[in-house]
TrEMBL record:
One function term, GO molecular function aspect: hydrolase activity
Top-level lineage group: Bacteria
Protein's name according to its UniProt entry: Fumarylacetoacetate hydrolase family protein
PANTHER family to which the protein is assigned, alphabetical: ACYLPYRUVASE, FLUTATHIONE S-TRANSFERASE
A Pfam family per the record: FAA_hydrolase
Gene3D superfamilies for this protein: Fumarylacetoacetase-like, C-terminal domain
Keywords from the named record: Hydrolase, Metal-binding
Keyword presence, Heme: no
Residues in Fumarylacetoacetase-like C-terminal domain copies: 29-228
UniProt cross-references to SUPFAM superfamilies, sorted A to Z: FAH
Matches recorded under InterPro entries: Fumarylacetoacetase-like_C, Fumarylacetoacetase_C_sf
Segments crossing the lipid bilayer: none
Length: 233
């Protein structure tokens, strides 16, 4: 490394791989917006797959927090929301990938929480501004250990569920994604050269809601595993 750095460079963000000492170096985090019909409805919008395309927002890799952590309630919000998500980990480069070839880019899967400052997101939406303050902030991307596809096979269905203090809030199935994983990879790769280390948070089901200091979030996805998070002052 160069000795001309003005200050120390950030360490790479490394995600654990279940059942292995290997680590997954995170490159980028892509998040799919409104990818379950019922969630779109609860957010007051409609999605018509025949006339619309998927859309995305990004989180910085430094926002990743491992499952099991205790994190602080974030600043400048009074409406801090959980969003349980199915995460796809990419380990091969791809550009303009076909749906038929999309599975080849997948290393594995994880459970994720897209934590959201909902009041800031909605304020931005109402004024036509970017969502960054509501979505891309410290400790906003929770991630469980990545389970290799070699162990799970290609996942296209399975229960996805989240509870707060043991009370189930979100319960759905991966087969209810509006744009499935193959469609998302193919579409996203039209706009970006996908790279090893990219993560795709594929969207959250209905039932999103707020948490407060002292709450414990738990969730699971069939075939992938579990995730949990504690909120402190």
């Amino acid at each position: 490394m160069s000795n001309n750095l003005l200050f120390p460079a950030n360490e790479p963000v490394l995600a654990p791989v279940q059942g292995s000492d290997a680590l997954f170096p995170v490159n980028r985090i892509f998040c799919v917006g409104r990818n379950y019909l019922a969630h779109a409805t609860e957010m007051g919008v409609t999605v018509d797959k025949t006339t619309q395309e998927p859309f995305y927002f990004l989180k910085h890799p430094s926002s990743i927090v491992p499952s099991g952590a205790t994190i602080s309630y974030p600043p400048q919000t009074a409406n801090y929301h959980y969003e349980m998500e199915f995460v796809v980990a990419i380990d091969k480069a791809g550009f303009e990938v076909s749906e038929a070839d999309a599975d080849d880019l997948i290393f594995g899967y994880a459970c994720g929480l897209d934590m959201t400052r909902r009041d800031l997101q909605l304020k931005a939406r109402e004024t036509g501004r970017p969502w960054d303050l509501g979505k891309d902030f410290e400790q906003s991307a929770i991630l469980s250990p990545i389970v290799p596809k070699a162990e799970t096979g290609v996942l296209t269905e399975g229960s996805i569920e989240l509870a707060v203090n043991g009370d189930v809030k979100q319960s759905s199935d991966l087969n209810l994604l509006i744009w499935n994983v193959r469609e998302v990879i193919a579409h996203l790769s039209k706009f970006y050269h996908l790279q090893p280390g990219d993560l795709i948070y594929t969207g959250t089901p209905e039932g999103v809601g707020s948490v407060v200091i002292g709450d414990k979030i738990t969730g699971y996805i069939d075939g992938v595993g579990e995730i949990d998070l504690n909120i402190t002052a």
